[in-house]
Design goal:
Layout: H1 42-53, H2 65-88, E1 94-96, E2 102-104, H3 106-125, H4 129-135, H5 140-161, H6 164-171
Antiparallel strand pairs: 1-2
Helix pairs in contact: 1-2, 2-3
Length: about 170
């Protein structure tokens, strides 16, 4: 039987909630652009190229490749399912169930499930505006907005020096 009480802390473990072993990942791609799957639709391959040509690709790491390939595979499957449903028209919305009852086309169910997975992966990889904000990823327009804000604050400081109320206080 073990002794009672708190388990003593190991000396090699960090104390407190601060971890000094964290490292900051450097931005910028340090690897060649990965190739798109040749079996994907042209539309999916174009999305792949657009992503890797964008500034956002600089936040990606090689360890993320499986997640990116999975995401774009989902994009491709959704596009193929949507095309099939569209070709079937209104009669493609319903199909016959195992007991003869009308049910939703299984492709529609598949598409809805895939879109949930897509959204989750997009959020994890920072591909939505809110996800980028949560991850602290800012580009172009946001940086310009910050520069403009900084300029406005400097102009405000200059205007404050010319405030007539302050001039009246100085005269007294």
């Amino acid at each position: 039987m073990g002794k009672r009480g708190r388990i003593p802390k190991q000396k090699d473990k960090l104390t407190g909630h601060r971890d000094s072993t964290l490292s900051v990942l450097q931005g910028g791609k340090a690897f060649p652009t990965p190739k798109a799957n040749s079996r994907w639709l042209t539309k999916t391959r174009n999305y792949w190229k657009q992503y890797w040509d964008s500034e956002l690709a600089s936040t990606a790491q090689q360890v993320d490749f499986p997640a990116f390939y999975r995401l774009f595979q989902y994009y491709d499957e959704v596009e193929r399912a949507n095309r099939t449903i569209q070709n079937l028209g209104n009669k493609g919305l319903l199909s016959v169930g195992s007991t003869g009852q009308p049910t939703i086309n299984p492709l529609i169910s598949l598409t809805l499930k895939l879109e949930e997975k897509i959204l989750k992966l997009e959020q994890e990889l920072g591909l939505t505006p809110l996800a980028r904000q949560r991850l602290g990823i800012a580009f172009g327009e946001a940086q310009m907005g910050f520069k403009q804000l900084q300029q406005l604050l400097q102009e405000d400081d200059e205007n404050e020096l010319n405030d007539p109320r302050l001039l009246m206080l100085e005269e007294e």
